[in-house]
Amino acid sequence: MSSDARPSVVLLSGGLDSTTVLAIAAAEAPVYALSFAYGQRHAVELACAARQAARFGARAHEVVDLRHMGRLVASATALIEGSAHAVPKGEPVDAADRIPITYVPARNTLFLSYALAWAEALGARDLWIGVNALDYSGYPDCRPEFIAAFEALANRATKAGVEGDLFRIRTPLLELTKAEIIARGVDLGVDYGDTVSCYAPVTAGDGDLPLACGACDSCQLRRRGFATAGVADPTRYVG
Predict the structure, then answer these.
(1) N or C: which terminal CB in the chain sees fewer CB atoms within 10 Å?
(2) Whole-number average pLDDT of the chain
(3) What is the CATH number of the domain that holds 90?
């Protein structure tokens, strides 16, 4: 890392992808980590995010309370605690023509907007996010066209942008498979045993991370990624 590198803002959920992005970004510049409590069923991921931010030397780690947003969108997504929708399990995850019920309306638009505001105030110009367009669940706000559109917006909606000090949305995982992401993280020393991917984790009752269901979209992609990468999966699954 260059001693005069500008800081950057990393969206950090505490999951596999965002923790890998944190490791990549931290190797390049000082990082500020930003997480969100939006009423997600898997809110235990936020404890992982805090530990990972500390491991990778984040200058600060902020958790934004967006639980009111969760209440507003609960009727449209299974990912919010208390939603009437169940998290789908055992369904194929490679159907590119469907957007699953675990999609959270406008989530990454909101998250990047907060990151953009903080970045401008900090003098940071790189915003890092762990979106992926290969091994993912089909969410529209994880696609390249969304990232390009938000970057264009960022440079038209901010003082820095219109004055020519441009923002970049950094997406190092965008075109990687889950196995490639895991391999990259292993090289950077990521402890994947302290990340949560499951959309419907089950309390373990022993003080450790909860058990992953093993059957939701995210669990399926995670399991397949470790198997393909030839890396031992540290996740504890139900059963």
Answers:
(1) C
(2) 94
(3) 3.40.50.620
